[in-house]
Write a structure and sequence with these properties.
Layout (H helix, E strand, L loop, with lengths): L7 E6 L1 H5 L8 H16 L3 E6 L7 H6 L4 H24 L5 E5 L8 E2 L2 H9 L3 E5 L9 H11 L4 E6 L4 E2 L11 E2 L1 E3 H6 L7 H9 L4 E5 L5 H6 L6 E4 L1
Parallel strand pairs: 1-2, 1-6, 2-5, 3-4, 3-5, 6-10, 9-11
Antiparallel strand pairs: 7-8, 10-11
Helix pairs in contact: 2-4, 6-8
Length: 238
């Protein structure tokens, strides 16, 4: 049996990924598919941490653009990520995999507070760790939270799960002429203003030489293929 290419991964999931074709909320079928893929990777002995967004419930940036105080809107968005984390926890544990939800905003009745050493210990004990509430600070996206947490837990790679099969020169949904990059540098992502992750997250990964793999979440088994080191999606490296 082949050995996984990565020992410890951080999977970045957008909130929109959980809503499937719905316009809002959580699609149980999508949550089940994502949980099945995560359980498959966990079964290979890979340590899995997940940072999840909240855009399927509430987007702080959008609310701020409509006049709401940005800090307030961002805190509301962080709480939305906790709802998604609990839904994903339920789906993953339904596949027989132990999990822990940890949050950057304390709410002890539903989750543990984020403590770096404790999160690493959970991973070492074979638990999937779901990291919610972003960084706990307004003005920082869940992309930045993913980069920060990946560094803190010493992940080998960030897997950015999207609706498309990699990084394109333009939005492939709108521009059929858009070309896909198999491999691209951090600086090129920033210079070309490609919407992979926000500039803060990309810069953090660049400074710490942490690779980012962007792949299509909607194809069952893609996460396992990526973990096994197959050429799938696009990779951002130095």
């Amino acid at each position: 049996m082949s050995v996984p290419a990565f020992r410890r991964i951080l999977l970045k999931l957008s909130g929109e990924a959980l809503m499937g074709e719905q316009g809002f909320g959580i699609d149980p079928n999508v949550a089940t598919q994502v949980a099945t893929d995560i359980a498959e990777v966990h079964g290979l002995g890979v340590q899995v941490a997940i940072v999840i967004g909240g855009g399927n419930i509430f987007r702080g940036v959008a609310a701020s653009a409509r006049g709401m105080d940005r800090a307030t809107a961002d805190y509301m968005g962080m709480l939305a990520t906790v709802i998604n984390a609990l839904a994903l926890q339920d789906a993953i544990e339904g596949r027989g995999v132990p999990t822990r939800v940890v949050t950057a905003i304390e709410m002890r009745q539903v989750a543990e507070p984020f403590i770096r050493r404790r999160a690493i210990r959970h991973l070492e004990k074979g638990r999937v760790v779901i990291l919610a509430a972003g960084t706990g600070n307004p003005y920082f996206t869940t992309d930045t939270a993913a980069a920060l947490r990946a560094m803190e837990i010493r992940a080998d790679v960030i897997f950015k799960a999207t609706k498309v099969d990699g990084i394109y020169s333009d939005d492939p949904m709108k521009n059929p002429e858009a070309t896909r990059f198999e491999r691209i540098s951090y600086l090129s992502v920033i210079q070309k203003q490609l919407k992979v992750m926000d500039a803060t997250a990309i810069t953090l990964c660049m400074d710490n030489r942490l690779p980012i793999v962007v792949f299509n979440l909607r194809t069952p088994g893609n996460l396992r293929r990526a973990v096994m080191g197959e050429s799938i999606g696009s990779i951002v490296t130095a």
